[in-house]
Amino acid sequence: MRTALTAKRLWDGTRLLDDPIVVIENGRIDSITTRAAATTPAGAQVMDFPGATLAPALLDVHIHGAAGHDVMEATPSALAAICTFLASRGTGSFLATTVTAPLDATLRSLSALAKLLSQAPVEGQARPLGIHLEGPFLSHAKKGAHPPEYLLAPNISIFDRLHEAAEGRVRLMTLAPELPGAVELAAHATARGVRVSVGHSNATAAETRAVIAAGAVSATHTFNAMRPLDHREPGILGTVLTTDELFAELICDGIHTAPEMVKLWWRAKRPARAILITDAMSAAGMPNGEYQLGGMAVQVAEGRALLPGNVLAGSVLTLDRGLANFIEFTGARLEEALRLATANPAMMTGLEDQAGSLVAGGPANLIAVDAAGRLAGAITHGKRVLSA
């Protein structure tokens, strides 16, 4: 059965088309054309999104869980619940993100996740494309919600154990540049195909630059768990904002980062290097209550996920909501904002062949959004999934 999607516009990851027709067959895109150049195929089921823009499904490179489950549970039922919820909110793919935990527990989770990630995509579910190791190589001074007793100094041998437990599926790793051994580990991880992101850090500018020179390509949730900006010692934050080639994540929920700082980040990183993330934990999509983040009990109320001591422990944000917030806070054009949650994270992680764009022959994972970036529909593997 062929399906034809129509809308006001389409952004394919690089360009805009007016009055598009996207033909889908067997879960893949058969063709992308326009009403001026072609007609809707006879007999095709038509899904029309009047006034909306079609775009690639969103890619979240930093998410710990959703729908009441944490990725470190690493069970088929937990991952299925997370993937089903994410698909309903327009996220077609993601990196399953760990949190610092006892080393043996992390190794078990990575081993189980690797087996789940090797399975074929499931209709109606987002697809995990790899793993983001957020910890254990983080700073005690900027640990955030990570348990200090399980943080470790950068160690190539331990990294290799983690990477091998994950069967090579670690795609991204957060690393504090000031820790002894960070430069050597950044170079080693990069050589093994793992992208390094600087974060959870009290590093100086010089320490940060050294790890960037060793291969780091991104920054983890800019502003959060970072040394504050100082006009004489710009530190990690000043370096992140002024290093043009460095990608930089941002949690755009209005809680982790004020709208004024979102504007500052946008002016610094611009469309080519800015990445929107959620840092969502298991409470995303759930009512107020107590939830788990890597085994830690987190209280969630009024959109805030908190550990004792009023410490933020991830978010309950969905990426489609972050996209709309970003447009509201900055006034960015829709196609600029879409790039931050599609093409840019795909480029940073080297996943351009699996996410971030729409091409004939590629997977039929799309979203439809209105002019304000609000989700109007989501299509996963060629099938429409209802918004939650």
Query: Gap between N and C termini, in Å?
Result: 26 Å
Instruction: Characterize the overall form.
Output: globular
Q: In the residues, how many domains can be counted?
A: 2
CATH level-4 homologous superfamily of the largest domain: Metal-dependent hydrolases
Based on secondary structure, the structural category is alpha/beta
Q: What CATH first level of the largest domain would be assigned? A: Alpha Beta
Helix content: 25-40%
Instruction: Give the radius of gyration.
Output: 20 Å
Mean pLDDT: 96
Number of helices: 10
**Which regions are unreliable across 5 or more consecutive residues at pLDDT < 50?**
none
- The count of DSSP E runs of length 2 or more, i.e. the number of strands, is 22
Shape-level CATH architecture of the largest domain: Alpha-Beta Barrel
Q: What characterizes the major β-sheet?
A: 8 strands, mixed
Estimate what percentage of residues fall within beta strands. 25-35%
> What is the CATH topology descriptor of the largest domain?
TIM Barrel
Topology summary:
Layout: E1 3-11, E2 16-18, E3 20-25, E4 28-34, E5 45-56, E6 58-63, E7 65-66, E8 69-70, H1 76-88, E9 91-97, H2 103-117, E10 127-134, H3 156-165, E11 170-175, H4 182-191, E12 195-198, H5 205-213, E13 218-219, H6 235-242, E14 248-251, H7 259-273, E15 274-277, E16 289-293, E17 296-301, E18 304-307, E19 311-312, H8 319-330, H9 334-340, H10 343-349, E20 366-369, E21 375-380, E22 383-385
Parallel strand pairs: 1-5, 6-9, 9-10, 10-11, 11-12, 12-13, 14-15
Antiparallel strand pairs: 1-2, 1-3, 3-4, 5-20, 7-8, 16-17, 17-18, 18-19, 20-21, 21-22
Helix pairs in contact: 2-3, 4-5, 5-6
